[in-house]
Amino acid sequence: MKELLDYCTSQVPAIRADVERLVGLESPSRDKAAVDRCGAAVVDLLRESGAAVTTLPQADRGDHVRAAFAGGPGRLLILGHFDTVWDLGTLERMPIREVDGRLHGPGIYDMKASLVIAIHAMRALRHLRLPMPRVVMLWTTDEEIGSDTSRATIEAEARDSDAVLVVEPSLPGGAVKTHRKGCGEFTITAHGVAAHAGIDPRKGASAIHELAHQVRALEALQDLDRGISLNVGQIEGGTRGNVVAERASAVVDVRVPTMADAARIEEAIRTLSPRNPKVTLEVHGGVGRPPMERTAGTGRLYEEARAAASALGRDLAEGGTGGGSDGNFTAAIGVPTIDGLGPDGDGAHAVHEHILLADVPWRAAFVGALVSRLSGVK
Description:
CATH class of the largest domain: Alpha Beta
Mean pLDDT: 97
CATH topology of the largest domain: Aminopeptidase
Strand content: 15-25%
């Protein structure tokens, strides 16, 4: 393990250069041309590392990238994405820069540095001729907007794998993620009856008043102590102040810790009933990203990760988060999954987004050590 860490430390200049290269190629999820420019650089890095690389063409999103590394026994899926939440031009106000040991830039923490670190971990294993299973890396391009074009591929690759390692960034402080909440979005639309608010108010039925009642009903479904949250993040409706509103709608974000909670909350939202019989309710949406629950398989993976970290001189903590990742999909279909294997830092989706440079060599060695330990592990 010392040899592995020494090698990764010697590669820090190359790792940093590759990170800055990817961060410098802005890749907002809905800009296919921009995402594909970044994807071409990802393909170059993978081929330089000895992987057999294929691109998975998409019509309206960036092309996903699949890379296969020979090895065995056993097969691992390493999962991540290179689309970001940042629009083109963000680099002008958030340039790549080092400040007090932190390397800043849009998308660096979530999660371009993670891709580079995972690729360099594979280079280290090959260079040192350490044992490793067959490894498939799947780098996708629409994680930040729901993974609609990548989910089927993610699940198919996971089903062919013994375990899934998700290299999303670690929790602040370096802990891995062994559970994540499921994420859902619903749109609730109230259809009322328009009328003159001053002359004929009794002839109307306000969609806005009805929606206000439904918002209170949604709030009653929350159980923050158990990790169940419902947030009405957008409301719109009505036409003028002197018109009883004929239509109003609300967009609701839902976070749940378990599949049972997801089913219960979905049922409660879909069966909301109007208080005013003149109003009808229409509900669309659902829990699109299932919870990543901590299973026995996840627990075994965490113990392997903790042992790999210990061999490199650190005690590895575990935790969870309210945000979802593509690891939610792989965990939900029963494949052992561990998340948050990427570098320490902070500021995902925020202007202070950064990684800690001091963590980079250790993190590359850690990912490599974990991959090596999992050769042949079921």
